[in-house]
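Batch 3, record 17
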Amino acid sequence: MIRDFFSHNFAKVREINQKYAKPNVEMSGWVKGSLLFLRLYLILLVGLLLYKFITLL
Amino acid sequence: MFRFSNIYYEFRRVWKAIKLFFIISGPGIVVMVADNDAGGITTYAATGAKYGYHLIWFLLILVPVAYYVQEMTVRLGAVTKRGHGEAIFAGFGAFWGWFSLIDLMIVNWLTLVTEFIGMTSSLRIFGIPPWLTVMGVCILMGIMVLNGRYWTWEKIAMVFCAVNLIYIPGAFMVQPSVHDIIHTGFVPHMPPGGFNNELFFFLMANIGTTIAPWMLFFQQSAVVDKGTKEKDIPWGKLDTLVGAILTVVVAVFIVIVTGTILPGVNIDDAAQASIMLMKTQKYAGTFMAIGLFDAGLLGAICISLASSWAFGEVFGWAHSLNNKVREAPWFYANYFLTLITAGLVVLIPKAPLVLITLFVQVVAVTLLPAALVFLVLLLNNKKTMGEYTNTLWQNVITTIIVVVIVILSTLYGISTLFPNMFK
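Prediction for the assembled complex:
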């Protein structure tokens, strides 16, 4: 039963990944720049969280 | 006679417009009033106690800030018929979609825990044990969604929004000086002590509570579930504007209450402020506690639904409040699982509730910038938005707002991680 649950959901996730594989927003310079900013922003935040976690230990 | 018939005609026209507004209004008012959740009430109470009426003018600026951001979700939802989660998947692909969905799930669950903290601490003042509060809230929220109609759910939520206005009579009870409020509060100026780290921290906290990630997801999904059409967009905008004004009015009245009775007192949470108020103004303190419970309840109502809607949209489950439980089992399972687990955390002895409250701010800033940037980009997609695409002015205004919110909320989140940075 548990195996069925996970195999069903993994199949669903794969289906979602395929369905949304191609973004429908045109990747102009602004969009690419914004997405790059978001990636860098997240890396910075995750770095700060890790730093805090390590210094707390 | 002709004049009377004219007056009657005008009256009928205005009355019809008001009736239409009450039919179409809902998501905007609910989301905006729910923005004054347990965390928000604490922020406003602490702001009033710390700075008196000196920052009321700053709160007024938050009306257009909240309106311009949330108004975009109305247009996006009405035109695309997609919630924000699904819109991100479709617009930017699976990576950003999964990131937003999983982050939303974590942030919402943590925020829900803070709403339960607010609700249990407020009712504890009246001698109600936390387990009874958690059980009562879960049953109440179950009844709200299990009737199988979006409309009924929304109107019950609107009643709780009306209860949120309890701070207004509360403020009149403490008899503040209207002259002081107008001269100190409504004229933009620097509070005594000038611009320092502490003031900056309070400004960040107030901005940080104005726009939360769940609000974007909630309102867009609610607009879709309600069946809002493109022709209803002007009404949806009015609904959002009325909500934005209401939320700031409530915030201002909270500031007036604590600014009048507890000036110079450091407040850590709104329940503590209620107890302090009760010592001198019994009814004002009682109203503050009732308002805190209502704020937590409204927040919980919206947050648990925001997660369930987002998951339903992406996984393709039936995900409408118009569905019965057997028609949308996963939607309701998600709703109750989120709600009950968050409630149970509060009941665990020695659970790290303070840490959770602080951690919410940090996790929220990982999602908020992405959700806001995606919103602006999606509103510029002519292919899907057509005539409802952002105009140049809308882009200028929303970009400025988004940049300011991202900077201040990020600094607020970082200050939670490193508390001595701004103090």
